[in-house]
Amino acid sequence: MKHLLIAAGLLSATTAIAADKPQLTVYTYDSFVSDWGPGPQVKEAFEATCDCELNLVGVEDGAALLSRVRLEGENSDADVVLGLDTNLIASARETGLFAPNSVSAGFALPIEWTDDTFTPYDWGYFAFVHKADATAPANFRELADSDTKIIIQDPRSSTPGLGLLMWVKAAYGDEAPEIWAGLSDNIVTVTKGWSEAYGLFLEGESDMVLSYTTSPAYHLIAEDDGSKAASAFDEGNYLQVEVAAKLAATDQAELADQFLQFMVSDAFQQIIPTTNWMYPAVTPAEGLPKGFDTLTVPAKSLLFSPDEAAAVRDQALAEWQNALSQ
Amino acid sequence: MLKLDDCVIENGNFTLNADIQIEVGNSIAIVGPSGAGKSTLLETIAGFRDLKKGQIFWSGQQISNLHPGKRPMAMLFQDGNLFPHLTAEQNIALGLRPNGRLSEDEDAQVQSALGRVSLHGMGARKPSELSGGQQSRVALARVLVQRRELLLLDEPFAALGPALKAEMLDLVADLVAETQTTLLMVSHDPQDARRIADQTVLVADETVHAPVQTAELFDNPPPSLRAYLG
Amino acid sequence: MAERAQPVSPWPGIGAAALVAALILGTLAAVALRAETSGGFSPADWAALRFTLTQATLSALFSVVLAVPVARALARRRFPGRRALIALLGAPFILPVIVAILGLLQVFGRSGWISDILGIFGLPPIRIYGLHGVVLAHVFFNLPLATRLVLQAWQEIPAERFRLAAQLGCNGMAMFRLIEMPMLKRTLPGVLAVIFAICLTSFAVALTLGGGPRATTIELAIYQAFTYDFDLGRAALLSALQLALTAATALVALKFSRGDGFGTGLDRALRRWDGGAPTIDVFWIVAAAVFLLLPLASVVISGAAGLFDMPAIVFRAALISVLVAAASTAVLLLLALPMATAVASGRYGLVELSGILGLAASPLVIGTGLFILIRPLANPTTLALPVTALVNAAMALPFALRILVPAARDITARHGRLALSLDMTKWTFFTRILLPRMRPQIRFAAGLGTALSMGDLGVIALFADPQIATLPLQIYRLMGAYQMQAAAGGALLLLLLSMGAFWLLDRGGRWHAEA
């Protein structure tokens, strides 16, 4: 036990050294802070400009992140929360824990962004990823009629899972239950999170997996492997926009604003494509990394506003559960 | 003097009444039909069972509320008298010092007890490496170093052959004589009783009868004993 | 003397049990008190309850029923590699869930090895997803544990009993009725209860193998209440339901597992004379080995390439995991040994019960509850490792108790009177008699505890600090970053470390081999 404490002390010593500098605490999801995520580079880049210390705290995923902030409430240690998406914005706003900021940027999103509290830092299209040499269905109806096998994530425990729920609802409205009923024999299984689903797909358990249009970029750029492709559906692909916001109760309001402004600058944005494997919210001056030009770009994008998303969420979930529990 | 004063012992569905006195230094056999309560009586005296009623005195001191280990007696059970993971020496040492290390002097006592039971040089063996007779000797050596005033034997030699059992009983007789220990011994065999017990207590009909001369009892047994002896 | 004198004191054990109960119920209360509103149970929750009970019951039954012939075969046969096989049996149990799922599906999946073989003959792939898949996965996880626990009980029958039975000319069936059946009656209820409780809290395995939302378990409903609905009241309510179910099962099991021990033995090496024709035993050993080792082989094969391809950070995570596991094992023994002693010294069913609760407690609720409780006092993130070690110990406690209690009970029954008559203090009896006599069980419990702690993602995910991550967490992070190959390497490293620790502590199940 003693050795353990010593080890823990040594490992956390790095955070203790610069105690005299102002500290900015940013809560985000776990994969952001991991050594393969944007976290380490973002920390280095921001600390080079701010004369402060940036503490990135990882919390499982976006939904768990919001729960953590709600759990801590008014006296949260966080100054900024980074990693919510449009499906979570309405309930995040409802908590009253977040404050507006004055960040301005020329967003390169497929939609217009006007929210002054939740600021986007990256985005992507949900899409089914498949082997590049396989023919993919062109829409959900065609998918349902085919015997293509897919693996999806559970909307109750996974951000992409919830995205798919919204996607079908946005594309088909009241016909969504029918679509789900048609898809039920295509769905091999439903996983807790993205990693399980993607892992199973790579093992060959399905023909397609719910992921992002940017997923093939990873295989292309990091593994020099062009064998994966994402399919654009002709009813449109649902968007995920990931946002960050300042907490109202922060004691580092200025630093938090500075971080949010940094977040939409080139220094941050150029890190995103090859670490978070998403499109940057603001295209960096030097453009997107090589390989991103090969990605499928859906002709049409779908996205509920945060309020619409909150309004349809529970009903969409019930329809999904009903159709797939038969 | 060991005195069981108006004692009532309950064990499941039978009770046992005991109101007897035993003189210091005597060797007493306890006989009686199977299931009459011989072991129960011994266990009660040793403190493993509570009295329903009455009191037990040793030399005028009330001992019936004492913890088993605080009573002035050593007991050998039908089995399990040695700890299998400890050597003969370690098992014997427990009789001197159950909770600590031995002094040099005490170590010498252990060695001498080993010698007294003719187990010289076998102190480092574990029980599984000893014969049944040798195991009994180790247990007796421990009793020897315990120096208790009373020795209770609940047929510890029942598993030994007749010759070996006789040998053990003779050893017990020698030891209790040397140390002026009072002996209470459960027995099934009149021969055993005659061999080392001057007096015998009959346990039958839910009663612990007062001790009588062993020879007299077996020469002229009461009806309950006669039925048992066959 | 109101109570019969006992050679050991139950109080430290009662204290330890109170501590564990406080941890589990206190964290639950913390979550419940923090709740703002609660909607109560929804119809979907009742469906989740039904499914949870069904799968847990089936999983426990199949695991235990299959474990009996496997354990019997292992108890009766001596063959080269037996020790290694028994040690390897521990492996599925300690794999991180996600790794085990991938390993299982590599064998049983739509494009798994079995389906590939079927494909050669023009047959369709096997359909693994569904209730049967959930049960299969849970049997994969728990059959080894059940086998080890039953094998241990077999091993605790004194050699003298088998000798007696052999002398009486008992054949296999008679031996079974005479000696083994009473032992099984005493052992199996406890094993059933433990596995039932483990399966009760299954989430990712049940969902993935179950093939969709019809395989929703209570644990998933708790997760949903926490993160999707942020309804802490419902999360606490569901967690309380899970605890109540486990407590009820445990009470029933404890009632049935009372009974007499096998009396004294003299530490003779176990030899069996009821060998007979080996066909059936060979069948069970081979079948169990194939079922359990194939998915492990797939973990090894996929990990071998990644093992040398891992960033240094993974090795640091491995070191942290080892440290956490060591601390966790120390805490585990400090809790389990007094508790086992207390249980052995009398009717302290509540002590045993509080030990089993650790299994049914939702890690999410314990983690969140601890977070709520610790936060006013200290920064939870800095306590991530000690908290993880503590929670891992509480989760492993039920296993440790199942291993330690029968032995403690027998030893106390066997040597208690002698110790009392020698005026041995309780402490001396504990240190000089109980501990040395229980050494094999303690080593087994410590090995299992270490391996479990090493493989468990535990609450670290809730408290994580980017600087301090355990190996399972790093494996998840690698997967989340598309680095499936490095993740597979990490999984293999974890497997090697856990098995290594288990092997060292349990000395390769040496006690199960001939002495």
Automatic annotation (TrEMBL), chain A:
<dbReference type="InterPro" id="IPR005967">
    <property type="entry name" value="ThiB"/>
</dbReference>
<keyword id="KW-0732">Signal</keyword>
<dbReference type="GO" id="GO:0030288">
    <property type="term" value="C:outer membrane-bounded periplasmic space"/>
</dbReference>
<protein>
    <recommendedName>
        <fullName>Thiamine-binding periplasmic protein</fullName>
    </recommendedName>
</protein>
<dbReference type="InterPro" id="IPR006059">
    <property type="entry name" value="SBP"/>
</dbReference>
<dbReference type="GO" id="GO:0030976">
    <property type="term" value="F:thiamine pyrophosphate binding"/>
</dbReference>
<dbReference type="GO" id="GO:0015888">
    <property type="term" value="P:thiamine transport"/>
</dbReference>
<dbReference type="InterPro" id="IPR005948">
    <property type="entry name" value="ThiB-like"/>
</dbReference>
<keyword id="KW-0574">Periplasm</keyword>
<comment type="similarity">
    <text>Belongs to the bacterial solute-binding protein 1 family.</text>
</comment>
<feature type="signal peptide">
    <location>
        <begin position="1"/>
        <end position="18"/>
    </location>
</feature>
<keyword id="KW-0813">Transport</keyword>
<dbReference type="GO" id="GO:0030975">
    <property type="term" value="F:thiamine binding"/>
</dbReference>
<dbReference type="Pfam" id="PF01547">
    <property type="entry name" value="SBP_bac_1"/>
</dbReference>
From TrEMBL, chain B:
<keyword id="KW-1003">Cell membrane</keyword>
<keyword id="KW-0547">Nucleotide-binding</keyword>
<keyword id="KW-0067">ATP-binding</keyword>
<dbReference type="InterPro" id="IPR017871">
    <property type="entry name" value="ABC_transporter-like_CS"/>
</dbReference>
<dbReference type="InterPro" id="IPR003439">
    <property type="entry name" value="ABC_transporter-like_ATP-bd"/>
</dbReference>
<dbReference type="InterPro" id="IPR050093">
    <property type="entry name" value="ABC_SmlMolc_Importer"/>
</dbReference>
<keyword id="KW-0997">Cell inner membrane</keyword>
<dbReference type="GO" id="GO:0005524">
    <property type="term" value="F:ATP binding"/>
</dbReference>
<dbReference type="Pfam" id="PF00005">
    <property type="entry name" value="ABC_tran"/>
</dbReference>
<keyword id="KW-0472">Membrane</keyword>
<keyword id="KW-1278">Translocase</keyword>
<protein>
    <submittedName>
        <fullName>Thiamine import ATP-binding protein ThiQ</fullName>
        <ecNumber>3.6.3.-</ecNumber>
    </submittedName>
</protein>
<feature type="domain" description="ABC transporter">
    <location>
        <begin position="2"/>
        <end position="230"/>
    </location>
</feature>
<dbReference type="InterPro" id="IPR003593">
    <property type="entry name" value="AAA+_ATPase"/>
</dbReference>
<dbReference type="GO" id="GO:0016887">
    <property type="term" value="F:ATP hydrolysis activity"/>
</dbReference>
UniProtKB/TrEMBL annotation, chain C:
<feature type="transmembrane region" description="Helical">
    <location>
        <begin position="383"/>
        <end position="405"/>
    </location>
</feature>
<keyword id="KW-1003">Cell membrane</keyword>
<feature type="transmembrane region" description="Helical">
    <location>
        <begin position="232"/>
        <end position="254"/>
    </location>
</feature>
<feature type="transmembrane region" description="Helical">
    <location>
        <begin position="86"/>
        <end position="108"/>
    </location>
</feature>
<feature type="domain" description="ABC transmembrane type-1">
    <location>
        <begin position="49"/>
        <end position="253"/>
    </location>
</feature>
<feature type="transmembrane region" description="Helical">
    <location>
        <begin position="12"/>
        <end position="33"/>
    </location>
</feature>
<keyword id="KW-0812">Transmembrane</keyword>
<feature type="transmembrane region" description="Helical">
    <location>
        <begin position="313"/>
        <end position="337"/>
    </location>
</feature>
<dbReference type="InterPro" id="IPR035906">
    <property type="entry name" value="MetI-like_sf"/>
</dbReference>
<keyword id="KW-0472">Membrane</keyword>
<feature type="transmembrane region" description="Helical">
    <location>
        <begin position="128"/>
        <end position="151"/>
    </location>
</feature>
<dbReference type="GO" id="GO:0005886">
    <property type="term" value="C:plasma membrane"/>
</dbReference>
<feature type="transmembrane region" description="Helical">
    <location>
        <begin position="53"/>
        <end position="74"/>
    </location>
</feature>
<dbReference type="GO" id="GO:0055085">
    <property type="term" value="P:transmembrane transport"/>
</dbReference>
<dbReference type="InterPro" id="IPR000515">
    <property type="entry name" value="MetI-like"/>
</dbReference>
